[in-house]
């Protein structure tokens, strides 16, 4: 497994992240973590809301410093307490302290804001997070399932005020769900943010898993295209789906969960699968995606002679 930098930091993170939500039993969790580490993986992702997962990881991670351990906060700890959820300072501190106890550690490498809280000013969240970084309880920050404009505003606030910025975003992304290509993915590329992509296999819909139940006509069509490409290349459908997500952008890191260790090696092997352009075209023909009328208008305007005259823009240079 190869490594990339986490956003605009010096932290080295594996090309594939291990999602720990499904790790509920210590012995199997230990086998999964070992298989992932043996393959070169070093990022394990959980959340305050995944109570059993955090507790199990705390039990099995005996070589704590070997891993980049990530958790999240925001989701409610108690539905009867109005302050037990949200991205405000009170919930942040209480959630992190509980996560640290479960994980049996005094710090986490990455703390993600689990989802957008429109009721808490982003400045409050950023300042509270920065305080925890300065206190040594958190090393780096990320934000999950949040609009691009909120992340961009947070990035500017952090830069202006000398606070710790977000280094990554965590969002759903798959052949069946390409919405981040409208704004989140371009934003991440421009700001130098890592994208942790969850749902890359669309919960088994792209691999024909029986866990999906009754797949929709669209799911069946796209899954058939994935199988066809897999047969052409002599790989598995899961490897094709993962390889496609990485082919779209160099900042994407698939976030994959395992219930058992026997699937780890095969899944990690997807990192060595390179899809030919024709295969990418076949997959995207089965799962068409339109950025939308406004995105089309903006892109046309950016290349319009009405903006630049008769000059041709080459990279960041203007050529007459």
TrEMBL record:
UniProt domain NADP-dependent oxidoreductase: residue ranges: 16-286
Alphabetic keyword roster: Oxidoreductase
GO MF, one annotated term: oxidoreductase activity
One term under GO cellular component: cytosol
Name of the protein this chain belongs to: Aryl-alcohol dehydrogenase
Species of the source: Amycolatopsis methanolica 239
């Amino acid at each position: 497994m190869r490594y990339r930098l986490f956003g605009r930091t010096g932290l080295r993170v594996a090309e594939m992240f291990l999602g720990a939500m499904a790790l509920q039993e210590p012995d199997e969790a230990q086998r999964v973590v070992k298989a992932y580490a043996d393959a070169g993986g070093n990022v394990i992702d959980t959340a305050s809301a995944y109570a059993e997962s955090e507790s199990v990881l705390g039990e099995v991670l005996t070589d704590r410093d070997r891993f980049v351990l990530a958790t999240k906060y925001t989701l409610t700890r108690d539905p009867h307490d109005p302050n037990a959820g949200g991205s405000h300072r009170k919930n942040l501190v209480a959630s992190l302290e509980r996560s640290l106890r479960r994980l049996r550690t005094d710090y986490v490498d990455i703390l993600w804001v689990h989802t957008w809280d429109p009721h808490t000013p982003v400045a409050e969240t950023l300042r509270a997070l920065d305080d925890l970084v300065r206190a040594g309880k958190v090393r780096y920050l990320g934000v999950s399932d949040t609009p691009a404009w909120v992340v961009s505003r947070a990035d500017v606030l952090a830069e202006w005020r000398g606070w710790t910025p977000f280094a990554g975003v965590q969002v759903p992304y798959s052949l069946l769900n390409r919405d981040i290509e409208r704004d989140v993915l371009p934003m991440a590329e421009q700001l130098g943010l890592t994208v942790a992509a969850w749902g890359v296999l669309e919960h088994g819909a792209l691999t024909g898993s029986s866990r999906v139940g009754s797949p929709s006509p669209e799911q069946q069509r796209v899954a058939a295209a994935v199988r066809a490409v897999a047969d052409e290349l002599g790989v598995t459908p899961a490897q094709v789906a993962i390889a496609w997500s990485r082919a779209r952008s160099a900042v994407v890191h698939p976030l994959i969960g395992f219930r058992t260790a026997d699937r780890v090696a095969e899944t990690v092997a997807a990192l060595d699968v390179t899809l030919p352009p024709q295969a990418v075209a076949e997959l995207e023909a089965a799962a068409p995606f339109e950025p939308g009328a406004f995105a089309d208008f903006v892109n046309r305007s950016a290349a319009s002679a009405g903006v630049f005259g008769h000059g041709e823009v080459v990279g960041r240079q203007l050529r007459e």
